[in-house]
Amino acid sequence: MASGSSNGDLSISEKSENKGMMWELDRNLDQPIDETAGRLHILYREKKFSTILLCRLAFQSLGIVFGDLGTSPLYVFNNVFPDGVKDKEDVVGALSLIIYSLTLLPLIKYVLIVLRANDNGQGGTFALYSLLCRHAKISTIPNQHKTDERLTTYSRQTYDENSLPAKIKKFMEANSFTKNAILTLVLVGTCMAVGDSILTPAISVLSASGGIKVEFPKMSNDWVVVVSVVILIGLFNLQHFGTEKVSRLFAPIVLLWFLLIGTVGAINLWKYDSTVLKAFNPANIYLYFKRGSHNWTSLGGIMLSITGTEALFADLCHFPVLAIQIAFAVIVFPCLLLAYTGQAAYISSNTDHVSDAFYRSIPDSIFWPAFLIATAAAVVASQATISATFSLIKQAVSMGCFPRVKVVHTSQEHLGQIYVPEINWLLLGLCIAVTAGFKRETMIANAYGTAVVIVMLVTTFLMVPIMFLVWRSHWFIVFLFTGFSLLVELTYFSAVILKVDQGGWVPLVIASCFLIIMYTWHYGTLKRFECEIQTKVSVAWILGLGPSLGLVRVPGIGFVHTELASGVPHIFSHLVTNLPAVHSVVVFVCVKCLPVYTVPAEERILVKRIGPKNFHIFRCVVRYGYKDVHKKDDNFETMLYNGIARFVTCEGMMEFGGYSDSEEYNTVTSSIDGEILPGEKELVHRRGSLMIPPVQANHFSIETTDEIEFLNICKDAGMVHILGNTVVRSRRDSNMVKKVAIDYLYAFLRRLCRENNVMLYLPHESLLNVGQIFYV
Are 507 and 196 in contact (CB under 8 A)? Predict the structure, then answer.
């Protein structure tokens, strides 16, 4: 593959004055690894779930996904009527709004429509963004290649040139402003979701703990706050056990909670005032607003009845779509309707009890058991948004939008179940600050509604291109979905925005801080990548130095880590010009994240030889999805070495057998402690099911055997990872905002985040850092 072209390549490199010929040579020497990617394209089938497993997952989803939505009856009506009920008909109107809000947003928009917009089972704003990045070239970091599109988990649509989706795609790809606008929208939704995960535990636990004052009205509110803080500390200390273990503990509690509120609601409806059932007539919504403008501002309280809806989508990675749909339709939705209808019936007969209607509507004989269940359910409610935040932060890290943090994979069976320690303790500190600062759930409720409605608006805006590009929906269907969603959500937004000065500023401040961090990190990452591109060295120049690269080739393997999938990184040219020796085998390693949820292990590594065989230079591209987690058990060094050895083996087999590079194949190798045994190799030709026995392989692969033995010798001599410690600084003529962002904030975040070698679990004694400074 390489030896036949060696003489020609070297003779051309001697004529370096001819720039056109040099460019052609560089292109031929460092071709994209399309062929390797094509060979690895295997059949991927979505995992199917049995009926029993599906029911079990639907049960477990109660403990993770629906806790927040399910505990809303604790605090909705007292926030709808903070000054008491002046007209019983207002109770019916408010109940009608709650019923149709639950029907339009959680049921129709999310459960039936938005959940279908998942990225192979992954939900949240970044999952939508990854879908868009695959269907349109809107990624702000241009590190993707057409070889990535051959992944089995990489799916996208093609469009007719004159079709509406094609025009929308062209508009989105037109300029950097559009790309940055979409990214900013995604980051705003993510930051608001993080703010939601801070407010949910605070309001849920504080509302549940407040039930004590129903039995002990003289108790100081400070004691309620203390109890709430203790419960919050216990909740966040449970997170390291993982989602699966937590859901097993929480799911029975939430199921018991839904049965409790549904049963109590049915009893209250029968016992007090069944006439509230007329709230199912949507005309009562019109009459409710007609009775006074003060009812418009009460929408902020009614908005609380659908809080937790956004967690349905963000927590999708933990459970299949059908399991969540079954749990919502069979248990959650009916029990919530009974709970709100029963409370409305009780309030209609006891208008002076609206401030603590939930606990007062519970029969005295079961008050304390109900209080304990409510407190436990409030703790569970927090789990939904905490789990969603872990998923969102992991996706943001993978997409280059958040500093690298430690991610712990807590389940061997479910890819999306993770725990992020740094974020967990940050959320705990902010939750305690909000709880102790506000002390009453009314102020937190105002903040809560602001965060929730903004996340919903972001989801609606992102669904528009998804429906056009991914689903290829008719424009009228898209118009109906967008119109009805915006009609409801903008109505709520107009109400909650009026309460910014009454607590609504909290999520805005929190989200602004996270947005600054995320956008600054992404901007700095983009500038580093651009500098790598601008300073890369031609492969033809490196090969022009000869097999020894003009240096002494010492035994060993040098893994040169870079963000480039083509060309030679600046750090290597810096080494070549300043050091007298280089390793016998040089491997350029590019680790990159793709806009897919996972990359199958069989397709993770792509290997390409650079130049003639006697140069012993390879390129290795390691690809991950945004849900893939680097685990300590994965030996990254061994994975790289085995990938190169398999490539050499397959290359030798194809040269002997006369197979073309376009044919798909797979190698089966035997290994001991990562060493390839050259005597035991088989070639499985996928298309023709052709198998070459080991004896024949021995006969034709003498040159291949020698190279593999050479690789083993170099491996035993030692493997070194050469990392670029790149420092990005602003130019002297940069404006003040850029200087603050790059020289102070980005530099500070770089010092705080985990290094690449720690994320990949590289041995510390095998590291070589090469410092370089780029001015942007």
Answer: yes
Positions of E strands within 98-249? none
User: DSSP secondary structure string, 354-399?
Assistant: GGGHHHHTS-GGGHHHHHHHHHHHHHHHHHHHHHHHHHHHHHHHHT
Mean pLDDT of the chain: 80
Q: What is the DSSP string of 71-135?
A: TGGGTHHHHH-TT--S-HHHHHHHHHHHHHHHIIIIIIIIIIIGGGG-BTTB-SHHHHHHHHHHH
pLDDT of the residue at 330: 94
- Whether 474 contacts 208, CB under 8 Å: no
What residues in the chain have per-residue pLDDT under 70?
Answer: 1-49, 242-247, 293, 411-416, 549-550, 631-634, 655-702, 757
21 Cβ contact partners less than 8 Å away, ≥ 6 residues apart: 12, 15
Please provide residue 100's backbone torsions phi and psi, each rounded to the nearest 5 degrees: -80, -25
Q: How far, CA to CA in Å, does 351 sit from each of 93, 270, 303, 354, 357?
A: 15, 17, 21, 6, 9
For residue 257, which amino acid is it?
W
Q: What is the CA radius of gyration of the chain?
A: 30
Which residues does 695 contact at the CB level (< 8 Å), separation at least 6?
none
Amino acid, res. 530: E
* Residue 364 near residue 195 (C-beta atoms within 8 A): no
Percent of the chain with pLDDT over 70: 84
Shortest CA distance to 749 belongs to which of 569, 512, 590, 513?
Answer: 513
**How does pLDDT run across 345-359, given as a tens digit for each residue?**
999 998 888 888 888
Q: What is the pLDDT of residue 413?
A: 61
Q: What would the pLDDT profile of 723-762 be if each residue is shown by its tens digit? A: 887 888 998 888 999 999 999 999 999 888 887 767 777 8
Residue 96: closest CA among 266, 331, 283: 283
Rounded Cα distance, 433 and 428, in Å: 9
